[in-house]
């Protein structure tokens, strides 16, 4: 409990940005990202941000980011544009996060992970909305996911039926399998980072806190993502033997298990109904509490799946490979097809 007492002052659900890195400035970040790149199968090559027209605001991130629905004027294709705005005082941790997201997005190419069609470092796009205070924008042109996030779906539907949960879980596992194969640990799997399109495809988004396990992009070990979905070994590495390398993959599995349980229960599972998950409560439940009781309303397959994900000792927790063979995501009659999933998520008006 000493740890709880020591850290009780940290009430926010977000980890603070890492300390400033001496050599990480606007100068070293932005030139590395220009010019924008387009993938070969993008519907139209996006040469310039002025090719895009704002259609609507899709959502806001943690204070630095806004996501717009945009139209590519030449091809009439629709994209999502995530704009991260920095002023001259932007903390270097935020710049690191943005650079990390850009670098990782450039590497990934999977039907289970959000596709990035280009990264721009211009201030032009936001200049109509904001006073130009000498800062800059980092803009990610991403595929547009019409169904929004799983967070939006849960807000509208509360609980999801098991076939929809298993269909979603299977797709997220495929995405994690791909990312982990690239030595990328996501570190922030949560409902608002799982997006759904009009074909019923579920894709992993938001690489702000992702982490390449090996290689030059391993820039910050202490920046870890949202507390609420954080595994015991990431919350309290000393007690649970976290070492920031091997356990990283297991941490993504824990987060997926919590998301799956939340989809079944219709609320965040680690605190009581209506209770806010503050830091101290989460610490107690995740690091010191007993293993969660599996809900009796769930099928044996679902209970077993969640049980294997929420094993507190990361060395005994299921791997993504094991879970891909689990009956919960492999019983044909129970796993929703893309068609069933999209009908549930995007019901006809
Ligand atoms: N590619 C996309 N297509 C459609 N909607 C999107 C897309 N990307 C993001 N959104 C919407 O915009 C919202 C904000 O996304 P953003 O990535 O900025 O932050 P977040 O994931 O909600 O929060 P955080 O900053 O904590 O990660 C999402 O919750 C989602 O509803």
UniProtKB/TrEMBL annotation:
Residues 1-11 have a biased composition (Basic residues). Residues 52-329 form the Protein kinase domain. This is mitogen-activated protein kinase kinase. It comes from Rubus argutus. One of its GO terms (biological process) is response to stress. Belongs to the protein kinase superfamily. STE Ser/Thr protein kinase family. MAP kinase kinase subfamily. The keyword Electron transport does not apply. It comes from the Eukaryota. GO terms for molecular function: ATP binding; MAP kinase kinase activity; protein serine/threonine kinase activity. It is an enzyme of class 2 (transferase). It catalyses: L-seryl-[protein] + ATP = O-phospho-L-seryl-[protein] + ADP + H(+); L-tyrosyl-[protein] + ATP = O-phospho-L-tyrosyl-[protein] + ADP + H(+); L-threonyl-[protein] + ATP = O-phospho-L-threonyl-[protein] + ADP + H(+). One of its GO terms (cellular component) is cytoplasm.
